[in-house]
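Review form for a predicted model. The reviewer records the input and the model, then writes brief findings.
Reviewer: anonymous (R2)
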Amino acid sequence: MERLKMSHYDIPTPMGLAKHKIKLEAEADVEKFIHKHVFRSVRNKVLQKLLLLAFQLKWSETELYKKAAKRLAEKKLLLNLSNVTYELEPEDVMGIIGCSKRTAIEYIDALRYLFG
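Model under review:
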């Protein structure tokens, strides 16, 4: 039996290999995916933390997304990724990556440039 060679971009699924098509069901799956696949290829800690935040914003099951989406719903604004990034608070980010308020503001600014 021949063994399949997999790169860190290939994700094993019950049906075979799926490239970049992932449906995640819970926040734990997002964390597991990021640590297993993304952090392996990105070695810079700052970029790893930025990617962690970006992935958490892209999947609506995560706590970070839910907090920002709730604030948008209260203001009756359109729920899209750009608006979600503008509703982020430094306290939301501080709890996830364990940084100071000033650093959290810088991460939020970077996310706004990426998704805004």
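Findings: Confidence is low (pLDDT under 50) at residues 1-26.
Further findings: Residues 10-18+25-115 form one domain.
Recommendation: see findings above.
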